[in-house]
Amino acid sequence: MTNYQKAIIIGGGIAGKLAARVLSDLFQEVIILERDLKTEEPIPRKGAPQGAHLHALLLAGQSGLEELFPGITEKFHSSGAVKINSTRDLAWFHHGVWKLRFDGGYTTTLQTRPNLEWLVEQYIYRIPNVTVMYGQTVQNYHFDEKQNRVLGVVVQDGSGSLQTLGADLFVDASGASSFSQSWLNKRGVHIPQEKVKIGLSYITRMFELNENCDRDWAIKLLYPNPPHEKIGGTISKVEGNRHIVTIIGYHNEIDEKSVLKNDQGFIDIAKKLPKLDIYQEIKDAKPLSKTTIYRVPHITWRRFDKVKNLPEGLLLIGDAICRIDPVFGQGMSISVLEVLALQKLLRSTNQSRQLPVSFQKQAAKIIAPIWNMVITEDYRYPETIGKKPLGLPFLQWYAKKIFLLSTKDKEIYNTFIKVMNLLKPMTILMHPKLIGKVMMHRDGSSVSSRKNS
């Protein structure tokens, strides 16, 4: 794509860095505009308030990241990130049952988001035609009405100075509070969107656990059994021999004031989890951080693929398109898949006018099945408000059967893992053999009371 000279990316988070990586192959110059100041160590950024909470790369995201940055997985491990067997070292209590634990041959890396983002950033710094400009706040676009094209971006630095930067392509990776979305709205551009109210709260704290030779897991997930349970939690080992604990509550179920009142508040909320496992681990543990809270009142999918007259030269990616329910850990992996789709388009599309529209359609194809899978679970709560997917009662019934069978049937659980980790489409769960097992299954107390193995 020799007609592309310069690309500007708004936002230096995960999606922005990944976009810079693929754009650097075909653009002579790539500039990342980051609102936060540069840090000298892996710490949570002000511009990413969710950064202090538990994050995970699913298997598809992990594979894609390695493809984009060869050797980065080993860099994670050498930095202290924890390499685990995805099915053996995960203890997962889900819809009232413990998932089967076995060696499925998958590996997962457990680490904090700041560690992951920091190491990705080190790779970016080594790309000679990529520049990161810190402390930059986007104020406006320079727009040509006749061409319907974005020609430049007006930015303000920390001193208040303004400058306009021109480019051939502008990529908005600025997250859920996307500047482009508000700019388009002010211009009267209609952006269809799907919005679902979930009233989610995240509370997180880091701990140093007591030694326990009987601890046979690296990450333990206690998912609420909807609709009567709304609080769940995860405890995960991360770099530095620490454990990060994140407790989630749907539909404002968590009393945030009591949690923040004192150190005991976090311990007390752990008592409300479906099992006392996490409470038992942290009640005598040493806290290593303060309690942080992150709220997701609703999830939103902005359908830029349906926008008529989308300005040329403007492309949106990551959470700027879709902020999905973070409980399922799919956000970063979706960004990886989107960037790989962008890379493919860049190599095959010869005209800049085609790229943004083509990419938004590809992004929608990536998001659609994941969105439907996630909201199928979110709608198990009657308080969830939004547009429901077609066939919701059947989808929920079938999914619940898969969940329950995952406690004892290795084939079904292994198939579910591939879907959950975005390695395979949901349609593989409808294989005739699996349908037969689902139809034969009968709910019973022997399954729901099964102990962790």
UniProtKB/TrEMBL annotation:
Residue ranges of the TM segments: none
Name under which the protein is recorded: Glutamate synthase
InterPro entries the record matches: FAD-bd, FAD/NAD-bd_sf
First and last residue of the signal peptide: none
Domain FAD-binding: 6-346
Originating organism: Neobacillus kokaensis
Pfam families reported in the protein's UniProt record: FAD_binding_3
SUPFAM superfamilies: FAD/NAD(P)-binding domain
